[in-house]
Amino acid sequence: MSEDRPADDHGDEGVKAAIALTSDALVELTGAILEDCLETIISRTIVACHRSEKVLRMQSAATQAESLALAALEPASLKAGATSQPSIPIAETSAAKYENGRVLLKGNPLKTTPEII
Fold this sequence. Notes:
The protein is mostly helical. It has helices spanning 13-19, 23-80, 109-112, and strands at residues 90-92, 96-99, 102-105.
């Protein structure tokens, strides 16, 4: 339940508590809060950058494997003619393997994929 008092009257409890902090304690508290904020900002930025780089390299490895498989498939389908059934494309690079329409990564794309295409 609320007390019956005017809206402007906030009481003195908050003011007394704020006055109880010394300037040294306030400086220490402010420094700790600022340090935590900066650490969080830097940490989140690093994690976001690392994740985006890893996703780009995963996509590059998959694109390279798929392109290699499709490049090997096209000449074979032209030679065989339109009557034969197309073969299932398979290709393998140092970073990924393309098989039956799926790409499987071989390891950490940050180590296995040297460039982003």
